[in-house]
Amino acid sequence: MNNHNNSEVEAKNISRKRGSRRIDILQAMAQMLHSEQWQKITTAALAKKIGFSEAALYRHYRSKAEMLNGLIDFIDQSFIKVFKDIDANANHNSIIKLKLMVECLLVFSANNPGLTRVLTGEVLQNENQDLQKRMMKILLRIEEGWKIILREAVINKEIINEQNISIAPMLMSYVIGCWWRFSKSGFTILPNRYFDIHWKIILQSIK
């Protein structure tokens, strides 16, 4: 990959402003989601991994759902920060910005296998539906942002056909498909593995 530092966000970089204990819990949960036994994650198992009692765990988070919400917070803030940096770069035209944002989602997943199961919603299926709705809302917000970038590309004559704005949902479907493939392969098929090739095909279809 070339010059993708902006898109490389790792779970170990979670801000510790909210308290190191809370961060330790979230990092431990992300690590456990990476394992084959992720479906058996309980507060008891999580407390044991960290070396807490369950009572101590509940002093920091009231429930497993609240911990998952903390992971979604991290995902959301990570994307917001990186997308803001990409968008602020005056040297990038609209199409380059779009490419970097799409790749950011794939690289984030590759760097954070456990969090991929949050991105796909797998770990949220048996939890509070509000968590699933929140994750979907984040993805839809990103998709709407891509539509804005594509409109700018049309205005700047980077792409000719205005109908190509509708490619935004397809790009999101592509990203989610790469996430699922990564997860279902036991994290062996990296989501960004063939991105450069895929992007050339995508670019040919919209120019």
Short descriptors:
single chain, 0% strand, Tetracycline Repressor, domain 2, disordered N terminus, 207 residues
Strands, helices and their partners?
Elements (H helix, E strand, L loop, with lengths): L19 H14 L9 H8 L3 H7 L3 H25 L5 H18 L1 H7 L9 H27 L11 H18 L10 H12 L1
Task: Please describe what this structure looks like.
This protein is mainly α. It has a single domain (9-206), classed as Tetracycline Repressor, domain 2 (Orthogonal Bundle). The chain is built from 9 helices and no strands. The protein has helices at residues 20-33, 43-50, 54-60, 64-88, 94-111, 113-119, 129-155, 167-184, 195-206. Helix 1 (20-33) packs across helix 4 (64-88) and helix 5 (94-111) packs antiparallel against helix 7 (129-155). It is elongated. Residues 1-9 and 14-18 have low confidence and may be disordered.
Do you know the CATH architecture? Orthogonal Bundle
Q: What number is the mean pLDDT?
A: 88
CATH homology group: Tetracycline Repressor, domain 2
CATH topology name: Tetracycline Repressor, domain 2
- From the N-terminal CA to the C-terminal CA, the straight-line distance is 23 Å
Major sheet size, sense and barrel closure:
none
Structure class? mainly alpha
What is the assembly state of the chains in this entry?
single chain
Report the β-strand fraction as a percent range: under 5%
Total number of helices: 9
Residue stretches low in confidence (pLDDT < 50, at least 5 long) are 1-9, 14-18
Q: How many structural domains? A: 1
Taken from the alpha-carbon principal axes, the silhouette is: elongated
Residues in helix, %: 55-70%
Q: Give me the strand/helix succession.
A: HHHHHHHHH
Q: Report the CATH C-level class.
A: Mainly Alpha
Give Rg in angstroms.
Answer: 18 Å
DSSP E strands, number: 0
